[in-house]
Amino acid sequence: MRLLALTLKSSRRADKQTFALRMLRAAAISTPRLDKMPGMFFSAPAKGLKETDRSLLDDKTPKRRPKTFGMDVKAYLRSVIPHLESGMKAAKSKDILSADEVIQWSQSLEKLLTNQTGQVVFGRFLKSEFSEENMEFWLACEDYRQTQSDLLRYKAEKIYKAFVHSDAVKQINIDFRTRESTAKKMKAPTPTCFDEAQKVVYTLMEKDSYPRFLKSNIYLNLLNDLQANSLK
């Protein structure tokens, strides 16, 4: 009897061990591998990660260098002077600009203003100083002199109201005597009726704004880029 009891006890232990082994195997089969679980950082094989990192570091896509001067002066000026588009259209400046031309701007205000691109660049400088009305008035006077006789009065009144009148939105800085003299000339406009006021404004720009323009970043950066490009 004792022998039978020991045999049964031993058999039960073996059954328990067998059952435990089966459960462990089942658990091992049903447990998902971490490297196969979606959303885990190591879901991609280590080799894949290294290849990805290498591809990012070894990106040999050629970088396009920005054109400074080839010489597309319009594109360049737009990049260094904000909101230039309208000014460029008005001036119809040529696309090619040389360092020699820009150097000539420093010889005199007259040299600067006889160059269409110079007019644009100087005008944008004046705008940065809130005195662009001087340049606009000077250009309007230059255009007015070429006006046909039947349009003189119409243009003269337009210029006077915009720049000379005491309530003008873009009133120019001229003395009282010149303002009164110009107002009297409006009764019978002639091609030269704004000459006196234009001369006052020109002198103001020549003595005040022009020297500062030659020392400004707008002028110096433009000149430096042109000179650097000429050496390439």
Structure description:
- This protein has 232 residues and is mostly helical.
- Helices cover 65% and strands 0% of the residues.
- The chain is built from 12 helices and no strands.
- Helix 7 (116-128) runs antiparallel to helix 8 (132-144), helix 8 (132-144) packs antiparallel against helix 9 and helix 8 (132-144) crosses helix 11.
- It is elongated, with a radius of gyration of 41 Å.
- What is the straight-line distance between the termini? 111 Å
Residues in helices, as a percent range: 55-70%
Instruction: Count all strands and give the number.
Output: 0
What is the mean predicted local confidence, pLDDT?
Answer: 75
- Quote the beta fraction: under 5%
Q: What is the general shape?
A: elongated
Order of helices and strands: HHHHHHHHHHHH
Structural class: mainly alpha
The description of the largest β-sheet is: none
Low-confidence stretches: 26-71, 80-94
Number of helices: 12
Radius of gyration, rounded?
41 Å
Topology overview:
Elements (H helix, E strand, L loop, with lengths): L1 H29 L15 H12 L15 H8 L4 H7 L7 H7 L3 H5 L2 H13 L3 H13 L7 H13 L11 H10 L9 H20 L2 H14 L2
Helix pairs in contact: 7-8, 8-9, 8-11
